[in-house]
Amino acid sequence: MADDDLVEQGDRQISLQATVSRVIVKAMKELYGRGPTHAKTYFCDEYVFCVMSGGLTRSEETMMRGGEHDSVRDYRLRFQAVIAPELIRRVEDVLGRRVVSYHSQILFDPDRLFEIFVVDPTEDGGSGTATGGSSAPS
Q1: For position 61, which CATH number holds?
Q2: C-beta atoms surrounding 122 within 10 Å
Q3: pTM, two decimal places
């Protein structure tokens, strides 16, 4: 990992991938009232993939027990569309690159949330083209 892929946070350096994970988990906690319990971010060329688990709200968990998976998915995807500008802004701030496209998806078995960002491939915000991932505790 290049030195440019490390970010100062307090008295320690953490990877850029872990910083993206932390920012997205924090945003979800603030906007949903509950956030994912695990997150790992991967960079591949101009693509940023954040894969998370946990974090369904109590009402969503209740709906799931009642077999309302499609309703929970529909709500989540509609809510993600509303908060997309905020997530994009936060990721752009971390990466120093413009996000040109964003997509969100949720799976229930296994429990996974996917946030996919496509950054402008003509910009080089110092993040390089790392292909590894780094997790961030919530």
Answers
A1: 3.30.980
A2: 9
A3: 0.80
